[in-house]
Amino acid sequence: MIFAATINQTRMLPRVGARPVVFGASVLGLAAMLLLTRLSPQASYSADVLPSLILAGLGLGSVFSSALCTGTLGVKPAHAGIASAIVNMSQQVGGSVGTAVLSTVFAGAVTGYLSSHPAAPGLRTAATVHGDTIAFYWAAGFFAVGLLVAAFVLPGRDRARGLVDAEPQPLAPGPVAPATAQAAETS
Fold first, then answer.
1. pLDDT tens digits for range 32-89
2. List of residues 6+ apart from 94 with CB closer than 8 A
3. Are the CB atoms for 6 and 26 separated by under 8 Å?
4. Is residue 50 part of a domain?
5. At what angle are helices 18-36 and 123-152 packed, to 10 degrees?
6. Stated pTM of the model
């Protein structure tokens, strides 16, 4: 993940912009989740899990670094700190909500599997793998939404360069409010 983020920040984003990078990274994440839906109780780590983890690491590393750069693109240097904080907060909240949704989906799938199958040796393992599989399908859906966002919302290279080259605009036109000016003078 660190490798992908480093290459993305220094080589890819300046050349092609955020749209193709996030789109490609979402394709990698989607592929990783779809590969993980094929897991079975007999799956091996090296053949069935590791390739998906590598794809997911490359994809997530590129998405996270692109989100930070794009989220602070065109922001005045004086406001870069708050813009970065908002992007980081959004990533944290999104990760928390996503984890909660996927955990709920997993728990519901496991409960449904256990209640619909007769007791047998290996039932809990099969139910756990079934819950994982259903959660990975949902995660694949999240990556598919990321593909749509990348395709239709994120700026391309030319628009991103225009934002960087443009003169930053003030947040609000007009003079500073008197209360704000007084507070600034007293601190």
1. 999 999 999 899 999 999 999 999 988 888 888 787 778 887 889 899 889 889 988 9
2. none
3. no
4. yes
5. 160
6. 0.76
What span, in angstroms and rounded, lies between the C-alpha atoms of 35 and 146? 18
Count Cα atoms within 13 angstroms, Cβ side, for 157: 8
Please give the mean pLDDT across all residues of the chain.
82
- Confidence at 177, pLDDT banded by 50, 70, 90: low
Whether the CB-CB separation of 131 and 109 falls below 8 Å is answered with yes
Q: Is the pLDDT of residue 155 over 90?
A: no
CA atoms of 5 and 49, how far apart (whole Å): 22
The answer to whether residue 22 is domain-embedded is: yes
Which residue is associated with the tokens 């007009």? 174
Which structural domain range is residue 15 located in?
A: 2-167
Domains in the chain, number: 1
In a domain? residue 174? no
CA 171 from centroid of its chain's CA atoms? 28
DSSP for 87-102 reads HHHHHHHHHHHHHHHH
118 in a structural domain: yes
DSSP at 177: P
